[in-house]
Design goal:
alpha/beta, Rossmann fold, three-stranded antiparallel sheet, 11 strands, 27% helix, binds S-adenosylmethionine
């Protein structure tokens, strides 16, 4: 059973009281400073101010993270402001080493050899003559040493050509290979934003779950999300069966949704069955 500590308040102050080297995994998505309409937080600081603030909260994450801990930093951009993730990463260079770069793919089209096209996922279409629609975000896996052992096969996939299982010695006869760094994780289909996902910038529960599993999951882990939102990282920690989850959220409204979700009161986004007719009304398109 996971114990949850979901705190209302500024994560800088909140993390300040956590002991040094007490956290195994941080999975978080901070505000991106791209003008997202949060209900309380203003996402429009001057770039330099934002980067300075980010260095302060990331410094606290470094302090509380164990030497072999993992910090998964989810950050995206908008086409008109594409440098933000890279500028942020460079600003944190004195605190962490970039051990892995993961692409969270929200929507993709593949063209199989057999012909045709397979499209899956959701995206917000951009009406532009110069930009293409943005269908991904980054997850930077940051560590203190660049040498933290990960559990690749915990989120592995099967071989397409099963003959490879015997061919490669490292498989140990198991039909499991590393998934790689393109993670296709579509949003849950929603009908009503306010009721089903009352937050403008969530990541899917599965995203945080895969991060925790990649680090290596066990029942003694302590997981932290300093920018909790409506608590999707908390749900992931519960699903992974970690010992403790700690989260901070500055907005009381989002925090109360997180608490409800953790208590098991599901939002519409968690409900699977959707009629095709109502799905058409979504603000994100489903293909
Ligand atoms: C990108 S959202 C995180 C969403 C979350 N990953 C989820 O799936 O629900 C960033 C969140 O950080 C919160 N926030 C902004 N400044 C904060 C601060 N100083 N301390 C704690 N939370 C803060 C915002 O209110 C917002 O909910």
């Amino acid at each position: 059973m996971t114990s949850f500590e979901l705190h209302h308040g500024d994560c800088l102050e909140g993390m300040h009281v956590l002991p040094d080297e007490s956290v195994d995994v941080v999975v978080t998505s901070p505000p991106y400073n791209l003008g997202v309409a949060y209900s309380k937080y203003k996402d429009t600081a001057a770039r330099e101010e934002y980067l300075g603030w980010s260095h302060r909260w990331a410094g606290e994450i470094r302090r509380v993270l164990k030497p072999a801990g993992s910090f998964f930093l989810n950050v995206g951009a908008v086409p008109a402001n594409p440098m933000l993730p890279h500028e942020l990463l460079l600003r944190l260079r004195d605190l962490f080493i970039l051990q892995n770069t993961i692409h969270w793919i929200k929507s993709i089209t593949v063209t199989p050899k057999s012909g045709g096209e397979i499209s899956a996922g959701h995206f917000k279409p951009i009406n532009s003559q110069r930009f293409i629609t943005d269908c991904h975000e980054y997850i930077f896996h940051l560590t203190k040493t660049g040498n933290v052992k990960v559990d690749r096969l915990s989120i592995g996939v099967g071989y397409v050509h099963k003959s490879n299982i015997a061919r490669w010695g490292h498989t140990g006869g198991r039909d499991r290979r590393c998934r790689g760094n393109n993670w296709f994780i579509p949003y849950e289909t929603i009908v009503n934003r306010e009721k089903d996902r009352p937050h403008p910038a969530t990541f899917p529960v599965a995203l945080a779950e895969w991060c925790i599993k990649l680090h290596g999951c066990n029942s003694e882990l302590v997981v932290l999300d300093p920018f909790l939102g409506i608590g999707h990282a908390a749900l992931a920690a519960g699903k992974c069966g970690v010992a403790q989850f700690v989260g901070f959220e500055i907005d009381a409204q989002y925090l109360s949704v997180a608490r409800e979700l953790v208590r098991g009161k599901k939002t519409g986004a968690e409900k699977k069955s959707r009629s095709k007719k109502s799905a058409k009304n979504e603000e994100e398109l489903l293909f």
